[in-house]
Amino acid sequence: MKRHSYVLAAGVIPVALLVAVLWALSPVAAAQAFHATRDTATIAAHGEHTGTVSTAAVVVQLDDQRSIVRWVDFTDTVSGLAMIEATGLDIIVADTSFGPAVCAIEGIGCPADNCFCNADEFWGYNFWDGTDWQGYPVGASSSEISATGAIEGWRWGAFGSAQAPADQAIAAASALEWLRSQQDPTTGGFGDSTGGAIEVLMALGANHEDAATWKPSDGRRALDNYLLLRATRFSRDNVAAAGKLAIGAAAADACRTNRSVSPSFYFSDTLGAYSPDSGFNAWGILGAAAISETIPATAVDTLLAQQQEDGGWEWQAGFGTDTNTTAVATQALIAAGQPVSATAVVDALAFLKSAQVETGGIVYDPKTPEYGADANSTAYAIQAILAADGDPAGEEWAVDGLTPLRFLLGLQLADGSFEWQANTGSNLLATAQAVPALLGQSYPATVRELEACVARRVRVARDAAACEPPAAGDTGGACAMPAGANTEAQP
Length: 491
Known about the structure:
Strand order of the largest sheet: 4-3-11-8-9
Structural class: alpha/beta
Largest sheet: 5 strands, mixed
């Protein structure tokens, strides 16, 4: 968290924004302080298994679609400002003539010396009343959160911009917590499946969480430790594996292991694609986009040419079209620069719509709706809809009021896990794949070049040697280990 002190003159703030800012930051006497003490069973359950006195949730919506969420455990009454600062997110706060103002969260917003740089958008502050978001009648430094169950909301956008329902983010947070409970405390992985660990990596990355610190409360190894020993081999399995690894690593701030390969390794000049199979080619395009590799135009042309007459794609030739491959291919085309109005994208969305059944969910194959909708197909479809700037909770995707998002939420169990289909029990892949969809994230969630693990270790060691030792009794300070650091040796 970064706090800067600046006095901003009211005269330089646009009138419309000034009204919103005065509303959000207005100071009040202690007797008028607003108390957020909403009760939410899911959050109370989190407090029970962390053993803390109180737990609240902070939901941050970064734009019209993407959200991230954090649990915050506390023992004493805290302000909303203290709550957002306690999330561990990158926060920039400026002390202004109106009081403390949140300028930026996770890089979205304005610098401290020009906290209201955008005349049309700013960080709005809300609370969830159990049914809908409500604007706080006081500023974040004056609100009081005192009991388990509060859900705090922050939304970047114009004054009055709607924030996605809190139940989606809370469901994602509960799913991530269940996934963490399934993590092997001795290896940091999830059983013997590297593929499952990569799916979890993509899920936690969608929530801006760090693979280097992601481990169970009783664990000795983080997910990053597990991947250090296995990512190279996994990336060399095929381009779909390399693409998924790239997407997850970019989002979860994981490093690139020695001798691992990226999607470009698989690109064939002869084929003009990453693979002759559309599913593999699509994951290659998405992975390349995630780590800022140049996507050859021929790879996109090949994927476009592989679209079938019904608007869908098949994983491999002869398999028949399916919603999962179609959703991935749609995201790949948009990530590669195809407009959402492109015929291929429009036809793909029509194919996905044809796979929607009366429950609101999406089936794997629209030709066999009797098999029923499932979590994985629905989650992938939601991501494709989001990538195309659609609303998976809107009227266009409603069947008698039931939407893909409502169907997906209905598959979550009390422990936070998701079933593949109703009454099939907890499913790790279904749980992991539900998280990005619930958080409004399509792939790639983050675009970032990967730092080599060796280079990262050298950088961390150099930074540690250059910093000043912390003062006596200070557990943090300038010499605290940076985020993303990992002391485990790598192969």
